[in-house]
Amino acid sequence: SLDNIRRHAAFTVNFLILKHHFNGSGQRVLHVDSKNYYGGNWASFSFSGLLSWIKENQQKTDTDECEDWKKLILENEEVIPISKKDKTIQHVEDFCFGDQDSAEDVEEAGALPKMPVFGAPGVEGVAQEPEKECPPVESALLEAENQEPDKAAGTEPASATEGRDADITSENESSPSTASGEPALELGKTEVAPSEISAQEPKKITYSQIVREGRRFNIDLVSKLLYARGLLIDLLIKSNVSRYAEFKNATRILAFREGKVEQVPCSRADVFNSRQLTMVEKRMLMKFLTFCLEYEQHPDEYQGCFRDCWKTQKLTPSLQHFILHSIAMVSETDSSTLEGLQATKKFLQCLGRYGNTPFLFPLYGQGEIPQCFCRMCAVFGGIYCLRHSVRCLVVDKESGRCKAIVDHFGQRISANYFIVEDSYLSESVCTKVCYRQISRAVLITDQSVLNTDSEQQVSVLTVPPVDPGKPAVCVIELCSSTMTCMKDTYLVHLTCPSTKTAREDLEPVVQKLFNLNPEKEAENEEQEKPRVLWAVYFNMRDSSGVEKSSYDGLPSNVYVCSGPDSALGNDCAVKQAETIFQEMFPTEEFCPPPPNPEDIIYDEDEIVPEESGFSNSPETKPESATEESSSGDSAAVKKEDNEG
Fold first, then answer.
1. Which among 21, 320, 413, 495 is least buried, having the fewest CB atoms inside 10 angstroms?
2. Which domains can be identified in the chain, with CATH numbers?
3. Residue 274 in contact with residue 379, Cβ under 8 Å?
4. What is the pLDDT of residue 160?
5. Mean pLDDT lowest among 551-565, 590-604, 629-643
6. pLDDT interval class at 575 (50, 70, 90)
7. β pairing state of 252-257 and 459-463
8. What is the DSSP string of 365-401?
9. Residue 525, φ and ψ in degrees, nearest 5
């Protein structure tokens, strides 16, 4: 048996954080996943992988499964069936704005041989990482925050130092001090030849080119950024998981005002160099930002709604717009003054740690974060079984505790604790649960929403709602140097809490920012907009914030992880992981710094074969799981081979 087992066909950041800590605290971990890729709704796909994912979710069908496993249930046991269908993704609609027929016979460069079924061995998704190129100049690993800027500039990317703050390195000079008062290291901007300046006519990109270069894309199902002083960054540094990842600083914060996209000044230097603000507005803005950093000292001034605070500070409409939608990024009608001030302070405190904005983005996409924790867990003996589904949880009637699972091979796997992703609980368990939804859109475009001399920009834009009571839309635009799209294209993510289907929620914003009819004659204003080459819309379930008591009949040793939430950061996932860990092991420290694997000395007597709960798989050893599991699905392949 295993000390911890996870029945999860949608591997989320919450649990992958937990798995790393379970291994670090001496627990044995088995990850059982019916999908053939890591990450579930946190995953990233190449373009062909995403097309397969779209097809799978558009053609969901119930499968008839053999129920011989029921013979394994004893008289003193009962079962909690696992949901056979993933209902977290709905209303998937994809659109190609080019000649789709021309790409019928085009093969993806460097792709593995195509398999007939999405989920079969060897298809895209088994190894989510494409053939990675050398990271660009502006890519970097986390380094010690106390490193001097002049020493960091011009260095190669380096691994994070253990348990310390970190800085992003680049080939550029360090930027001036920001509003937070700390020296900032701004990521280098790749110099481009005059012929490549974006002011020229953008290159014509065809659909066949996108298909051919599909492995250049790493398209996230969920769009998030890492706050420079957020919980996830601190966790990556403390746990030393940051050694497996590289990051790029978000280079600019944008605003959409009066029908135009413009850049928002963030740092002190940006504010005083800005031509968008008058001198009076600059003084007013700096005074308000200083107040936000010290708001706890003035409790009488932050009562009521956030917009009431503007009246006391006498902010102009343009300043109100910048603060609400680009700095605090909160709702105008639903947010209290305290929530707005807290969000503004968080934004300001993150400035200057790694650059001129508060945000970092992982190279190769957000889907790298789950895989980073997978690798660290595997180093310390975590075992992964992909393409390995589970039929039910087995509960002891007398104690009321879950004692085992039954997998699709009909074998029982025993454990002390079970962690399940919300989407795999049956409807009978979730009758009292009320879910929210997230509207998502992913676009491939031919140019940036705001062209500058540098094409390599990572931009964050919040589009305010047209109608009162509707949510604002968060737009994240990624350039090719983030290793998420091919050259001369941009990958654009749109996210907001759902009120209708994703297309109904987000298409009005897409129409404001982009040209959806590139082949037709359009007005000059439309021609200046970036062309959308391809788009997909879908709704994703938001199960964050659901209390365990909302689920009917769950044993006390079964814990539930939620999927992604609609927030820009990752704090919710980290907090949930820590909460579950402390419930399971209240005397253990959460996230202790791990030892370096090369420093661990094993006694010969301790290195013995271990079954790890698989009674029919004596060949499966921790050593094999350590190295092979990080490559994708070796544990599952071995298991299936042995059973076959």
1. 320
2. 230-247+264-360 (1.10.405.10)
3. no
4. 36
5. 629-643
6. very high
7. parallel
8. -TTHHHHHHHHHHHHTT-EEESS--EEEEEEETTT--
9. -65, -40
